[in-house]
Automatic annotation (TrEMBL):
PANTHER family, per the entry: ARYLSULFATASE FAMILY MEMBER (PTHR42693), ENDO-4-O-SULFATASE (PTHR42693:SF53)
Highest taxon of the lineage: Archaea
MF annotations from Gene Ontology: hydrolase activity
All copies of domain Sulfatase N-terminal, residue ranges: 4-295
UniProt keyword annotations, A-Z: Hydrolase
Chain spans, region Disordered: 425-444
Record lineage: Archaea, Methanobacteriati, Methanobacteriota, Stenosarchaea group, Halobacteria
Family (UniProt): Belongs to the sulfatase family.
Name of the protein: Sulfatase
Pfam family, one: Sulfatase
Transmembrane intervals: none
Species of origin: Halocatena marina
Tagged with keyword Hydrolase: yes
Amino acid sequence: MATPNILLIHCHDLGRYLGCYGQTVDTPHIDALADDGIRFDNHYTTAPQCSPSRGSLLTGRYPHVNGLMGLAHEPWELHSDEILMPEYLNECGYSTHLFGLQHVTDDLDRLGFDHIHSSGSISPAVSPAIHEINRARDVAETLEVFYEKDTFEPPFFASVGVFEVHRRQNNGLHEFTDTTYEPANPTEIEPLPYLPDGPGIREDIAAMHGMIQALDAAVGTITTALDAAGHAKETLLIFTTEHGIAFPRAKGSCYDPGIEAALLLRWPDMIKGGQRCDELVSNVDVLPTLLDLLGKSVPDRIDGQSFLPLLTDEKYYPRDQLFAEITWHDRYNPVRAIRTNQYKYIRSFWHLPSTYLTGDVFASKAGRDVREQLQAERRPYEELYDLTADPYEQINVAADPEFEHIRKQLRGRLVRWMERTDDPLLNGPVPPADYEELLPSQTR
């Protein structure tokens, strides 16, 4: 099997809100990736938030295993012995390049890239100015120049991270809009099935359409440059995002809209176009798949499993479950979850409002529409949803005697996973990353 170049395109807060996943948004360039490759319809992330999910993508390990249990600027950090995707690929003979954003560490040297082509490579949450230099259009044009100059030394790995579709703070309100993006008409928007049809929600969805279309145009710039440079046939192009859209009951929650993510793979020399895969796949599975593809043994320390057989029609042993978690975001919100094809079991470990809203979602028009309703009651410690009968997770059947055996079974599986992975929640509340620094000196 030939050694491909690898181009990883990743963005913020998109989930599966794309035309190729059935949404009413115009994304022809991203849809073309699905038409020319394989679309994963049940791909989920390990966390409904940026840094922990991205850390899992790059290490193949769960957030509480690799240490990144909160946002990288909070300041959570990967354990010192973690090995990241660029480092693995360096060992496989790749030249490795970073374009645009990442949000895994403030220490860019820690990432292991040979070349960093970005002047600001952290999250927009760190500095409001970051988004100005990492818009999809600008990052794509930078990459285009590198292709035109034939700068890459094959085989190469390029990580391409863009600001969109992250909300921007504007006078205390977190929005998707500015003069760069053209919103859709709010009256023509399809409402989200898991939220009420409120005017603020409609306005935010319409504005998000503008950002998504800017992202799609950038993907078109990248794929056109790739084709023009003659690299398309020998390049595995991966398009993904780190968690669900920035709306209530999505980003920051372990409901499906929070942990769902697009995953599209295109490699003309190997992957037949137009394929659809409905197997459960986690983003911890991407790294072991790449190692498997390159003929390297997958280290035991990696939590994910290779899904390469799904691309080669070889024998594949499918997942019957996957796990998700959140511990810290802008506040303490410890949750662990297990998802099978039919059921979702969610276990909360703290007393919080019924629905957690991240800071940007709380301070948005969509958040204003529903935050009183969603935060009026205390969250149950156990939630169970029958995803076949209730795909939008509206009816908690954890206390229903009919589902008692399912609840016990999934709770047992979740606890065993936490024990197997030495989850610190088993020992009690997890302090914030800067806890020791904030203690009075005499008590340290």
